[in-house]
Hints:
The chain is mainly α. It has helices spanning about 20-35, 55-65, 70-85, 90-115, 120-150, 155-160, 170-205.
Amino acid sequence: MEKTISKRNNLFDVKHLYSTNSLVKISLLSVISYILMLIDPPIPFFPGFLKMDLSDMPALIGTFALGPIAGVIIEFIKNLLHLITRTSTGGVGEFANFLIGSSLIIPSGIFYAKNRKKSTALLGMLLGTILMAIVGGLANYYILIPFYAKVMPLDKIIAWSASANAAIKDLKTLIIYAIVPFNLLKGIIISIFTILIYKKISHLLIRKIN
């Protein structure tokens, strides 16, 4: 990865993000991220409301190519587009998705910005995945599940979740045995796909778009 990354000296410098070149890249990655957000198949052994999408992958790729701020912007635009076109939570789900996605993006970008090597990228994604699981658990405990409990009683949510995982007995076990493992799995899958794809497309992100 270190051979293909941009030679920009400071990935935290936001001045380059105002260029037409960077704005086009951010826009393209944001649209791809939004499209991937719409493709969210359920995962066996997890409650039906937990669905796997790869929409954080373009933001992670943008983070490595343009810096962590660009990655966060991509996360924001993706969720803004979803809020405008597809929301069923009045913005609650999009806000939580932004928090969870950014928790993966920011550590990955910070570590890679300090030392642009594959090893530091891997370390950043590992720490980001762990943080993603923690933030995902907290976001569901305090934001998402309380919101859905207004539509569907909490005991029904627990029963629905228990049908997929018998270890789920209450809200706490739902977080421990479903939400946290799901976000760990999601972070790992996104990281693997990013590693496999980034090297192949990085030249498109690094060179100027005419």
